[in-house]
Amino acid sequence: MMQTNEKELVQNLLSTPKKIAIIPHRNPDGDALGSTLGLYHVLKQLNHEVKVISPNDFPDFIAWLPGSETVEIFEKDKENTTDFLNTSELIFTLDFNALHRTGDLMAETLGKISAPFIMIDHHQMPDDYAQVTISDVNFGSTCELLYNFLTDLKLNHLINKDVATCLYTGIVTDSGSFKFQKTTGNTHRVVADLIDKGVNNPMVHESLFNTSSYSRLQLLGRALENLKVLPNHKTAFTTLSQKELYEFNFQKGDTEGIVNYGLSIKNIDFAAIFIENKDEGIIKISFRSEGSFDVNEFARKHFNGGGHINAAGGKSLLSLNDTVNKFIDILALENKQ
Question: What's the CATH code, domain 4-209?
Fold first, then answer.
């Protein structure tokens, strides 16, 4: 819930038409794109001039979301997107809580902007760049938090089929199709209302999960071939090299969800995937856990990352092989059992 002064400030900011930018984190997922586009459709109905500006492109499995064709990509058109940002009167940042999550160049651009920021996010330890910070780690998704935000502002009458579809998509993806721990009774009450507003929920699930290409399935096969189990640490991990990504015609989003296969193994409560990205000169890492093992803390402490207790990401500047060896050494040193 917003404090009364925050609510009044937001209502005042939105009371007259403004030029507004809405920003997701870099490499946007279903919750990031769903929340930003959901808010976009609401603000358009209030006669604001609105643009969703994504740091980089988003994967095909969410590219069908209503309004996705209007999203402008910062790294593809720095001049025009920077001009819009610099002349915006209000900036929303959704599904992240630190400007560096947009990438170095976009973070530098955002850091120079004097317009007020509104943050809506559900990750731990938010930075203090926003005039209004709506941050609650008890929510399983930013989309569910955004639904509450709109309800607090008495704007939920503007949740039409397009808005509802965007919000539903973010809730589905960030809740692991309603199976993660932060899926509450309220989550299902929100989802019920969204379905009542016109969401074609079978279509959403089909679009998200049943659109694999042949090469993507082959890539999954290679990742499963590479899977290693460390039973003493209740841990499973896999790797994908840049060469393997090329071999199977990697497209953005093709590795989504692969990390979860390690968690499906009996007696495993920690899983990781290490993906080589030679363009960026990093190893991109995703961590997942079940139960009380805190992968957010693990990612922050060892791999310059963060996220949630049971889902987090990080990166390494070492080689793929050295990164994996570092990971195994850390498990041994911390005596994870």
Answer: 3.90.1640.10
Q: 3-state class of 284 per DSSP?
A: strand
What is the residue whose two structure tokens read 């993906």? 275
- Coil, strand or helix at 56: coil
Rounded Cα distance, 217 and 201, in Å:
24
Contacts 24+ apart (CB under 8 A), 7-12: 7/152, 7/153, 9/131, 9/132, 10/118, 10/132, 10/153, 11/153
Of the listed ranges 95-109, 227-241, 259-273, 304-318, the least confidently predicted one is: 304-318
256-300 pLDDT tens trace: 889 999 999 999 999 999 999 998 899 999 999 988 899 999 999
Query: Which residues have a Cβ under 8 Å from the Cβ of 315 and sit 6 or more positions away?
Result: 282, 283, 284, 285, 303, 304, 305
Strand partners, 50: 20
DSSP 101: G
Cα distances (angstroms) measured from residue 198 to each of 39, 77, 160, 163: 17, 34, 8, 10
Q: How many CB atoms lie within 10 A of CB 192?
A: 10
Other beta carbons less than 10 A from residue 1's beta carbon: 11
- Beta-bridge partners for 19: 49
pLDDT tens digits along 21-30 = 999 999 999 9
Report whether CATH 3.40.720.10 matches the domain 215-333: no
Residue ranges per structural domain of the chain: 4-209, 215-333
Please compute, for residue 183, the number of CA atoms within 13 A of its CA located in the half-sphere on the CB side: 14
The predicted structure's pLDDT at residue 20:
98
**Can you read off the two tokens belonging to residue 219?**
């890539």
pLDDT computed for residue 251 by the predictor = 87
What pLDDT score was predicted for residue 193? 97
110, 102 in Cβ contact below 8 A?
yes
Paired strand residues for 306: 313
What is this structure's pTM?
A: 0.87
When pLDDT is cut at 50, 70 and 90, the band that residue 336 belongs to is low
